Amino acid sequence: MTDEGVQHILTNVGKFKVRHPRTFMREPKKYKSSLPSTEVPHPGISYNPSYTDHQNLLNEVAEKEIKQLKEEEHLKRTTTDLFSKVTADEKMDTWLTEMSSCLQPDDADDQDIDGDYRAINPPTSFDKKKTLKQRRKLKESKALELQRKMLQIEKKKVSDLYKLKLLTQELDKKDQKSARLQENRAQRKISMVNRTKRLNRNKFEEPDLVFKRKHEITGNLRSLEPEGNILLDRFYSMQRRNILPPTVKQNKTKKAKVKRYIKPGFRIDAAV
């Protein structure tokens, strides 16, 4: 901006023109999604769908509901059902039994106290000391064992020279495995492009499908009752495309603490 432009802005506007960065209105590549902004709805949601499309829609809804029921049963089985329900009287009886068990002396402990003292390790004596001949033989046996191990190592080195073909095959298998892993990683990266990413602590969950049962389908738009919400549909679409972070409905409302006081002019003492 020239000096004349700066002077004009300061004279007439009173503040500088704010320049936004180049990436201000650009969607970041990290969270960019290739999903369309307006998705084509399921054909079974139509006001006059075919029998096959409507049955497919009902099957999808039923599968999702069955999956949720299985998850609830799993949580109940792994949390609530693991703990047995005990009444207050049974709990008190169990506590008394456990606390009174330490008051009763154990017969086995009394027998050990009354009997003679026995050490854990056997007693030693001068007669059991090894002689020089025994020490020499033990030393020779250790040397022979060490020599045998060294011979085995040398034999293994010689045999490894003849295993070059097997080593080459193992290296080829390792290269093939690494190439396969790289290919799988690339395919996984491509499949992750259209997935909803984790933008905050809340995970995005697909909303329930809008559907009508067989007797609710009228075949014309005049007598059809509306289902769903366009605003919510757009809201979930932006969450699915990583534009907005997923949110959770807040049931509790935080109320600000208001400080209340009486003005001096409205006090009874002041009026009197």
What does this structure look like?
Its main location: nucleus. With 272 residues, the protein is mainly α. The chain contains eight helices and no strands. It has helices spanning 3-13, 51-78, 88-101, 107-114, 132-161, 164-191, 230-240, 268-271. The longest helix is centred in the middle third of the chain and has 30 residues, at 132-161. It is extended and about 110 Å long.
Brief characterization of the structure:
By secondary structure, the protein is mostly helical. The protein has helices at 3-13, 51-78, 88-101, 107-114, 132-161, 164-191, 230-240, 268-271. The longest helix has 30 residues, at 132-161.
Largest sheet: none
- Tertiary shape: extended
Label the structural class.
mainly alpha
Q: What's the tally of helices?
A: 8
Helical coverage, percent range: 40-55%
Average pLDDT figure: 82
Number of distinct beta strands: 0
Radius of gyration: 41 Å
**Strand portion:** under 5%
Order of helices and strands: HHHHHHHH
Low-confidence stretches: none
Distance between the termini: 69 Å
GO cellular component, one term: nucleolus
Family: Belongs to the NOP53 family.
Coiled coil: 52-79, 129-184
Main location: nucleus
Which helices and strands, and how do they pair?
Layout: H1 3-13, H2 51-78, H3 88-101, H4 107-114, H5 132-161, H6 164-191, H7 230-240, H8 268-271
